[in-house]
Design goal:
single chain, ABC transporter transmembrane region fold, Rossmann fold, 4 domains, 26 strands, ABC_transporter-like_CS, nucleotide-binding, ATP-binding
Length: about 1550
Amino acid sequence: MDIGRTTAPQEKEKMAKPILLTLPAALASIAYAFRTHQLLSHGKKHNLGRSWAIYGPSQLVALAACTTLVARAVALSNQNGGYSPAAMTATLSMLIAWALTLVVNHLEPRYTIRASPYVSAYSAISLLAAAITTRTLHDTSTASTQPQFHAFAAFLTCNLLHLIIEAYPRGRTKVQQQSAASRYDKANLFSRLSFHFLQHVVSTGYKRPLALEDVDGLMPGYIRTEHSYPHLATRWEQHVAKRRAKEREEPPSLWRMIMVVYARQWGWVLVLCLGHAGLMYVSPQLLGRLLDFVQSYKVPYTAANGGGGGGVGMKREPQPEPLALGVILAFGLFVASLAVTFVSAQYHATTTNLGIEIRTALVAMVYRKSLRLSTGAKMKSTAGEITNHMSVDAERWAQATGMMPMVVSVPFEIAIAIWLLYLKIGWSIFIGLGSIVLTLPFHAFMAKLFQRIKSAKLEAMDSRLRLVNEVLSGIKILTAVRGRELKVIRHLGYVFSVMTVIFTTTPLVIALVSFSVYATVGGPNFSRGEITPQVIFVSTSLFGLLSRPVSMLSQIMNQVISADVATTRIERFLLAEEIEDTVVEREEERGQDTPVIEVKDGVFAWCSEEPEVETDKERKAREKKEAKKHQEAEKAALKAGKLAPAKPESDRDEDRSPTLVDINMRIAKGSLTAVVGRVGQGKTSLLSAVIGDMYKRQGSVRIRGQVTYAAQQPWIVNATLRNNIVFGLEFDAKKYDRIIYVCGLSPDIDMLPAGDQTEIGERGINLSGGQKQRVSLARAAYQDADVYLLDDPLSAVDAHVDQHLWENLIGPNGLLKSKTRILVTHGIHHLEHVDQIVVIKDGRITENGHYDDLMDAKGAFRQLIDEYSVNARKDKKKLTESSSSSARDSAMSDTKEGEVEFLDTQDGSKEEEVEGDGKKVNKLVQDEKMESGSVAWNVYRIYLRAASYRNSFITVFMFIAAQGCQISTNIWLQHWTNVAADGSKNDPAMFLGVYAALIAVFMVATFFVTYVVMVIAGLRACQRLHEQLLASVMHLPMSFFDTTPLGRIVNRFSSDVFACDDAIPWAFMSIMICVVSVSGTVIVIAVSTPAFLALVPPLSVAFVLIQMYYIRSSRALKRIDSIARSPVYQHFSETLSGVSTIRAMGAQGRFVAENALKTDASSTAYFTYLTSNRWLQIRLEALGAVIVLGAALFAVLSREKLSPSMVGLALSYSLTVTEDVTWMVRSFCDLQNSMVSVERIHEYVQKNPEAPSATALDETLPEQWPSEGRIEFRSYSTRYRQGLDLVIKNLSFEVQPAEKVGIVGRTGAGKSSLTLALFRIVEAANSHWARASHNGEDMDADPAKAQVQEKDEEVMDLEKVAVDEDGGSIWIDGVDISTVGLSRLRKHLAIIPQDPTLFAGTVRENLDPFDELQDADLWEALERAHLKEHIASLTGGLSFMVSQNGDNFSVGQRSLICLARALLRKTKVLVLDEATAAVDVETDELIQKTIRKEFKDRTILTIAHRIKTVMDSDKILVLEKGRVEEFEAPETLLQRPSSLFYNLAQQAGEIKDSEE
């Protein structure tokens, strides 16, 4: 039945009621029953009461609606002549539905805090059906006067009132205000459909810059980690257990589990996706019907009236259709456009929520897995790779969920288009499709190639991030890795360009082939097909509709493949080996006689006994990878003119011998056990075995009671001092104060600007080694555990602090005297006071017993004591008595001078925040800077300059050329139809030839423009930006790293660089396509129907206003999203570095909760940003629908003046231009948001760097400078950052060539600062470079401050700095080092640092990072460093892989590798900064001998806590509070009992007591 055709009223009534009333009511009743069961079975009451002001009226109106339906049923039954069964069925169905509405509406407020979506949906649908039915009844002359009609009209009124009440916002109700639910969870159905719940964010963002707090609480509750993680992780664990139980089954599949677990959500997404696909073809059909309506008003002469009957020139009377039909069709177009918009928006919103839910769950799973990784698995997964699993791989799901359902919907859309095309051009369409089928193998090949290159790209990115994470020793290495990544990106660009051409031109190729067949043999009996405007242009429009799904295939395949690759990587990580909980048997503490720690027949190793089982596929992939790596090494050696390296042994063939053998140990309750031995013998490994960090191959380990652990390298988190110590426990002031005192931290806290609320930097970067160690001890003590495992905690502190800690904390009379303690130590002077001594050698316990027993045994232990203890048994009573009184005075200096004010910001003013309890919190690490306002045009200039202006111009030109070719194809087809209509000579070959040529030119232009954007310009830009970022970060002053968390820097190198590599080229391409397309469309419309141009200005103004209103919030939300990610990365990095401590102390739960909190904050920011796009889409496309309505109504009202072709052209292009402008606005917003990454990179690039790497003086310096090694400090002063106190004050002394100088002083006296000054890590106070490298508030200012104010403050900041001295200078061989380039200076000085740093790579690469030396030189250096035997025993020798941070070497061994590295550098000056603090006294003695022998012609500065280390120096420099106190030969100083050096030596036990 045609709409608007005359039909009997009775027929209308019969048709309307069952369809419009009964069906919705039946479906609603089923839905209500399901919802009632769901609430009663699984609902959770919120106990917040009801909003009676809404609930009461809603129920009363619903009850009134039921009453009116009862009245209508009665009226129908009493009707004269009987009642219609259909009418009665509809009325009763609705009565049941509305009665159930009362039930559901009664239950919902108990369990939810918003209007029921079921009730709201049915109320809206019921109102629409009732309105149509009322109109139908009104049109019937008899029904409108009957009582049943009046009853139904009353029902319509009740229905309308009910909908208004249900739609009324409930934000101000008491229930919602008391609820902690998110704003999304509080939003009703209509708010969610229109995304009005986001309105307050957009409005706020228009008025002022948005902050993270503005988006807090917006995300749906089910996306949060507490819900999403167990939802996926539980099923995954069950799946893995099931698959592993069946060994022959295929391996576990994370992809499959994600599909299964979220099957319900995927189902709803598919419904929306297919609904959207189907609705898109409604508008063209309505448009065709509207053209028929206009045609009906035309003059009698018609070509083909109605698209069908009648011959050409045949006279027919016009049969105009009712005006009402035209209006209905116009509104039909409007409703169809709105329906497409709302369904599309809900589809994208649903996939967004699903993607973020999956991402949140995966991040939580990766984080928890990283806490459970076994030692072997940890060596395979570096911090960079784990960060990538979170920042890139999990993120892929958030991006790909919107594309995945289109794998189903695209074939559906294509099928509809083909069916409609078949109706137009018959079987010719299948020939066209056949041409595409033939190319499918090529498509498959390209997809496979794309996947392989994508995997290689992510692997290259992993390698780069790993190196960034390790803060590389040289740019050279990282640049090479980045080069490999760019090479992969280039290949990716090639493939992407080809795929883009294939998918973009596919519809044109189908059209070409189809028209070729149709024009030649497509007619009846294989005659020529008739070329008419209707056939050509209707087919062309359908080919246009076909182009959307076909052109999206490229993007869909890209996203699906990327998600598959990412999921495989995460799956591999999740299946990695975990630490076994059964390694250590934990029991409750028992009686006094039961040992607290018991190890029987223990054999422990750092790797598993057998390599992991691998499939043939995995084996082949590994062998291929190893062969490729060796091939690259051979090429590099050949290029360098060296011998090709031997093929390294496979990881599968590595040495798997155990580290600890035959371990038997019993530790009594409350005892103090010391573990001693030489470097690399297994002391730390023994503690690792006890806490379960090693593989247990045989034997048993039992621990009774709670364990706490203080690692050899103190682990400090980026938090306040108090939070580092309390570590998540409840704060107990009395206990806390006691622990602060016994750890010697009281004076340090007193000197800090905000006391213990002072924030200490990431990794404790602004604390001295001794302070970090004592904070770590304080944390352990505060845990109040039963067992304390202390790994060499006294190595980094001075003798007086050592004694204080021993007497007050660790020793027999210390705070922990009743606790069980295992102390790894090199301090032999404490051994006589311990209960048990365990001597480790070659991984075995060689001696075990009390001090006296071991001395009597006269074994290796006795020999050690006799050789290295000056006063093995001297009376320490006097020292003990004085230690407590002197500890407070001496510890006053136990802070890095200058760092007592380290909380001062760069402008010299103390930046203090006040907490709720009134305590000041001093922030060292400031909140991350967030720009406000629009992305400056300068940022675009930066990117375009990086891409090159020439490439940019070529890109614009080629886009215009490609669009011109596309428009030309339509113009040529129009010309062809005109020629055919005129009856002129029609040669299909000529027309098809030109058409094919235009398509070929379009294909070439498309490939070229994609290639330029994605490969040439895009690659050049991302390469330049990465190089600038890397160069800037590598040359920033140390003060930047003191105040910037590592996660924040890694975020620039991961997410922001990834955006430059991937998102920005695509964003530029999208906006260019839209701009060129809109321009071309407007030109075509202007030429065809100039009258339509009247709609363009208001359309443009409206769109611009919406864009201006939206874009401010959109930019801020993108920035908030970027900034919210940094804490997640930082927390990951922090956790990975302290995972052993976290596990040993059982703090996994708290860290997991912190990770969830930070991930949820990041997800909320991301959710808000993506949902704001939907807010924009609804409003822009709704405006577009209004424009279509106006154009359609204009056509209907002017139906007698306009021709159908003009109406069709105007309306079809109005639809096109609306879509294009909408996409253009969104593309512009996306581009601005992506450009935030360039802005953030440029923020670091423009920071003030340290002094230049090279200066003009470098060229005039002798090649061998420094040739003597003479060092002179002339009135030298320095500070760590501008505005802080001086850390070295007026230092003047001279070191002669080849002189050995020992530098000593209390912790924090300025010893390490002196070495920093020598390497110009810090500059002389108030010097030119100290000011020039200052990154103060001018670089990280509050955007709200005016620029003038910033400049004034900057000047004032520098004026505040004390200028009573110029900072002096340092001279080496008569040259002021401040005039020498940093690269030249640092390359000719060598240092063995306090914290030995190794990088992931081979031993060879660590010793010789620039590949300048032969292996023989490396072995010689290792021999001198007393490490040759150990390295030779490792698999591969120099090719042995060092794990990240050197974790597979002991701290002492790392120090020896650093020594070997220093030996290889032929420098005249060597600095040893606590280089031997982590080695035993015997190895220390050997190293000192090596240094004396190998460096006899070099100047050596040795900083040491261990006084014995510097006793044979030529001179001793004693520092006190940053000043020179003494500088003489040690013999001279030891003859003066009043000297500071004498006191230090005496406290260290290096002077025999004269009273003895």
